[in-house]
Design a protein that fits this description.
With 155 residues, this protein is α+β, with helices and mostly antiparallel strands. The protein contains two helices and seven strands; from the N terminus they run E-E-E-E-E-E-E-H-H. Strands 1, 2, 3, 4, 5, 6 and 7 form a seven-stranded mixed sheet that branches. The longest helix is centred in the C-terminal third of the chain and has 14 residues. The chain binds zinc ion (ZN) (2 copies).
């Protein structure tokens, strides 16, 4: 069994459209390599700084995240499925395992904060900066009456 702690640069496209690890950014790996009957079992964690965009207010997101990595690399000669990993020329390619570990964990709709207020639907202002923001005068009372008439017609 071997314990490896190292830092590697992030490969390209380590993430999804809205959030991910920028290419070349540091990824801290803390991995254990264990020789088992069928191959080499790699387990541990990968941690990195994520960059993305809040899906509500479109602000930049930057946060540190840790991902569990676990992958069995089969020795050549074992029957493996297409999505399983193998040891090639005595080496293992961690990139796919890392990609799986990271991409599957990423949120499809990342938020800068859990209770992010998002943008004003009327003017696009960031409501986190201006929670009192409102458009009370948006519809002139005289027009409101007409709007009401329109509704009656369709009902
Ligand atoms: Zn936000
Ligand atoms: Zn507004």
């Amino acid at each position: 069994m071997k314990q490896v702690t190292t830092t590697v640069p992030a490969p390209a496209e380590l993430g999804i459209e809205v959030i991910g690890v920028p290419q070349g950014a540091d990824i801290d790996l803390d991995l254990r390599f264990e020789v088992v009957t069928e191959g080499v079992l790699v387990s541990g964690t990968a941690s990195a700084q994520l960059r993305g965009q809040c899906s509500r207010c479109l602000d930049d997101i930057e946060e540190h995240a840790s991902f569990d990595v676990q992958e069995l690399f089969f020795y050549p000669g074992n029957e493996v499925d297409e999505d399983e990993s193998v040891v090639v020329d005595d080496a293992i390619d961690l990139e796919e395992a890392l990609r799986d570990a990271v991409v599957l964990e990423l949120p499809f709709t990342p938020l800068c904060e859990e209770d992010c207020l998002g943008l004003c639907p009327e003017c696009g202002a960031n409501l986190n900066d201006d929670p009192e923001h409102g458009h009370d005068q948006a519809i002139d009372p005289r027009w409101q009456k007409l709007a009401g008439l329109g509704e009656d017609e369709t009902n």
